[in-house]
Amino acid sequence: MTPDTLARAAADKPTPRLNDADTIATEIVEKLTYSIGKTTTAARLHDWLEATTLVVRDRIIDNWFGTTIHTYQQQQKRVCYLSMEFLIGRLLRDAISNLGLTDPIREALARYDVELDLVELLEPDAALGNGGLGRLAACFMESMATTGVPGFGYGIRYVHGFFRQEIVDGQQVELPETWLKHGNPWEFERRESSYEIGFGGKVTTIEEGGRQRQVWRPAERVLAVAYDTPVVGWHGTHVNTLRLWSAQSLDPILLDAFNAGDHIGALLEANKAEAITRVLYPADSHQAGQELRLRQEYFFSSASLQDIIRRHLAQYPDLSNLSDKVAVQLNDTHPAVSVAELMRLLVDVHGIEWDTAWETTRGVFSYTNHTLLPEALETWPIHLFERLLPRQMQIIYAINAGVLREATQGQTFDDETIRGISLIDEGNGRRVRMGQLAFVGSHAVNGVSALHTDLMKVTVFRDLHKLYPTRIENKTNGVTPRRWLFESNPGLTRLAEEAIGRGFKDDITQLSQLDPFAEDAAFRERFAGVKRQNKQRLATLIEERLAISVNPDAIFDIQVKRIHEYKRQLLNILETVALYEQIRSLPHLDWTPRVKIFAGKAAPSYAQAKEIIHLAGDVARVINSDPGVRDLLKVVFIPNYNVSLAEIIMPAADVSEQISTAGLEASGTGNMKFALNGALTIGTLDGANVEMLEHLGEENIFIFGLKADEVAKLRAEGHSGQGVIERQPLLRSAIDSISAGVFSQDDPNRYAGLMGALRDRDWWMIAADFRAYWDTQRQLDMAWRDRARWDAIAVRNTARMGWFSSDRSIREYAHDIWRAGPNA
Ligand SMILES: *Cc1c(COP(=O)(O)O)cnc(C)c1O
């Protein structure tokens, strides 16, 4: 909005709408009639979804304008969250709940025999992300709105989000996801906010008033068009914007070529442009590496920065106060090219001196690191970078020269340290290191849990940390309690309200008032009753989708997350097989019934992860059809894990599996969602599990296994699994059975490689941690038999997880890094 339209909008503030069921019913019918063109009798469930969404949307828009005007008038600092991924999931229930409209809308729809819950289920799950990183961005958007931080999410409007997973003959099959098929009522196309994005071409130097200036003439140009989605916070008063960019060709069709008969060639350019935002790369914790990926990164970074600068210049005379008025958070290195791009815009386009521009750039940016895995650290071959982004490459060289000058001047760093600081990796055919670029271009660099931040200082950024010893800080992740408790677990939310009042809904740390109720037998029973209902709901879903019947009175032991070797689903499967063999050989013992539940997607090119899915399916088939284990053990793999499925799974868990190899899970957020909903965690001292242990107390979490330093030491000593396996009959037998084809009789050698790797290098310490894991699982069995104890622990988990709200994370970012927020 321009200052003029803002002033006008402020003058004609909309009158607040009534939110009673009568008014809402009237409005829904109006939308049905005049926006959708249906009568109430002809309307299908989809039409009711659209009409309801439009009615909710009207209420959001009123507050959206209000927020925009307020931010402008108060000259507030804006926080721009740049993220390649936003794993937002469905929006309707979230919006309705945050606006406090659940009851009137339910009632209004019921008058037409329409069930709100069924309507909500029809909304597509917006999966513009892979996993934890993208979901964090979504939780942060909601928490920025809730805490009143003027926030702008910037990302990519992928036509196809994260692939749909089906399991065919036990194996993952990837199908395209089409969330935009029926249109998207939440988004607004902003054709007036579009920017040209260049690729390739040449850089020339020109003289201008005695000064040299670099001019980049790109060979290719595409248009970035903005699509805005409002993001509503709790109570709905503050509404932020998620702005996603879509790529379009400047010339939709080359008419000359078309008229000359080259019909395909005429569309080639348009297709190439639109390919940039066509599909999300399905690689999690792994570098994609293709040119299209670098194009995506630069495309959305440049569009976002141009937008930020335009908005700034619409309000202030020049860019000298940019870093006072804008904070830009880089969510991982995917938008790290922004550092070079902002320098280009400031120096080349806006004529600002290099040193001043550099100070502004570092004032504006901060960077969040999400992984220490070497295979996930982004680097780009220099030749590719130079060809695609020649001017940005020059700028990176210049930044590097400055940083290396700084490093060689003051202190005496050895050559190895200097090599570690450099933005250019000279070792592997010369590559640009995006982590180093993001680090030097930021005033603050953060890890996402205390352990991860500590490890950053001695691993990936050991050398840069020596040069800039105060730059790294910690910001432990969080999850929004609105989606992950209030909306997904209304039963538990109601129970908590009855026990401690409504205060916790505005301030989630007040959940701690539930703590004494752990001693209250009647409360524990009601708590367990809610859990039982949630488990029944999941059991029904499993029955409907997989035709497997599971007993809701068994322990629901759940591991849902991306399939990755470091997350160690294989450890869980081995324990399952060992348990199966024990039950078979000692059937007279008093076994505790368990249902092992898995879900998660493997990157399409990640062979081992796909084998793990295959193995889970094979093991499930054999165990579930063995009359010898009856109801004592069931194994299910639920296909197509996504946010909507997570919302049903989290409230239904008794046991949460957070068993990554210590030192490798940066934080985890699934761990937080489970515990908040009263699941007991079995986990390693990794990521935010460490802080969960601190908040929960050691009696309320089941920690096992090697610690991060022990893993590092064993690896350095050249650990192999063979010796451990020989000494452990349970593990050896499980591995032997899998190797011998007991679970894959159609292909007995199927898992030879997977099992061989355990005997051999055991890189992920699965053999090394097996015994401790097994023993801890049996401790959980014991705890389950003492229901008073179990339920008390479950209650304390919910009571003590308030700190892990993303509101707390956002307040820390706002205070320590952005210096922004409602009171800044
Ligand atoms: C929370 C969440 C994740 C992250 O799970 P982790 O266990 O922390 O890896 C991934 N995917 C979805 C759909 C989620 O909701």
UniProtKB/TrEMBL annotation:
Keyword Acyltransferase annotated: no
Family matches, as SUPFAM superfamilies: UDP-Glycosyltransferase/glycogen phosphorylase (SSF53756)
Gene3D superfamilies found in the cross-reference section: Glycogen Phosphorylase B
Subcellular location, record wording: Cytoplasm
InterPro entries: Glycg_phsphrylas, Glyco_trans_35, Pyridoxal_P_attach_site
Cofactor(s) required for function per UniProt: pyridoxal 5'-phosphate
Main location, first listed in the record: cytoplasm
Modified residues (N6-(pyridoxal phosphate)lysine): K673
TM stretches of this protein: none
Keywords from the UniProt entry: Allosteric enzyme, Carbohydrate metabolism, Cytoplasm, Glycosyltransferase, Pyridoxal phosphate, Transferase
Enzyme class, broadest EC rank: transferase
Pfam families according to UniProt: Phosphorylase
Catalytically driven reaction(s): [(1->4)-alpha-D-glucosyl](n) + phosphate = [(1->4)-alpha-D-glucosyl](n-1) + alpha-D-glucose 1-phosphate
GO molecular function: glycogen phosphorylase activity; pyridoxal phosphate binding
One GO term describing the cellular component: cytoplasm
EC number: 2.4.1.1
Gene Ontology biological-process annotations: glycogen catabolic process
PANTHER family: GLYCOGEN PHOSPHORYLASE, GLYCOGEN PHOSPHORYLASE, LIVER FORM
Family: Belongs to the glycogen phosphorylase family.
UniProt function note: Phosphorylase is an important allosteric enzyme in carbohydrate metabolism. Enzymes from different sources differ in their regulatory mechanisms and in their natural substrates. However, all known phosphorylases share catalytic and structural properties. Allosteric enzyme that catalyzes the rate-limiting step in glycogen catabolism, the phosphorolytic cleavage of glycogen to produce glucose-1-phosphate, and plays a central role in maintaining cellular and organismal glucose homeostasis.
Name the UniProt record assigns to this protein: Alpha-1,4 glucan phosphorylase
